[in-house]
Amino acid sequence: MSWTRDTLIAAARDAARSAYAPYSNFHVGAALGFADGSVVTGANVENASYGLTLCAETVAVGKALSEDWRGGLEAVAVIGGKAGAVGSGDPVTPCGRCRQMLNEVAALGGSDPAVWCVGKSEVLELRLSDLLPRAFGPDSLG
Questions:
Q1: Residues with Cβ < 8 Å from 142, sequence gap 6 or more?
Q2: How many domains does the chain fold into?
Q3: 57 counts as catalytic
Q4: 68 with 62: CB under 8 angstroms?
Q5: What is the pLDDT at residue 121?
Q6: Catalytic residue among 46, 57, 74, 104
Q7: Can you give the CATH number for the domain in which 65 is found?
Q8: How many CB atoms lie within 10 A of CB 25?
Q9: Is 86 domain-assigned?
Q10: Is residue 142 part of a domain?
Q11: Which residues of the chain have pLDDT under 50?
């Protein structure tokens, strides 16, 4: 594995710098760490029609799936905050939609990735199954 918790958090922080957040000014970055050492990042992309906004985790999942990563998701780092102050507040956790999107990738490889939610004075370390217990996934379609 070529990434560590710290390098994955740094990748998420770097990704947040690319956020397109003209409405909320709240920048979020996410980094997905895969078993083969790959890291896929994403930043939030807002839209004037707020319902069309894409979260950083959703962008990263879309990139990963479109680049043919199918399984092997071991960890996710998420960081957010106002532009110029990313990571200076409370830890940011993935929203419900993002938890479901992350579950889709994790389910493809049967993993339960660590999710590192970064804040100013702490990094919450959770498992995806803790954030989304009894998740609906590919196996639910029977």
A1: none
A2: 1
A3: yes
A4: no
A5: 95
A6: 57
A7: 3.40.140.10
A8: 13
A9: yes
A10: no
A11: none
- Domain range holding 31? 5-130
**According to the model, what pLDDT value does residue 1 have?**
64
pLDDT for 123 equals 97
Q: Residue 29 in contact with residue 59, Cβ under 8 Å? A: no
3-state secondary structure the chain: CCCCHHHHHHHHHHHHCCCECCCCCEEEEEEEEECCCCEEEEECECCCCHHHCECHHHHHHHHHHHCCCCCCEEEEEEEEEECCCCCCCCCCCCCHHHHHHHHHHHHHHCCCCEEEEECCCCEEEEEHHHHCCCCCCHHHHC
Cβ(107)–Cβ(132) under 8 Å? no
- In single-letter form, the type of residue at position 92 comes to V
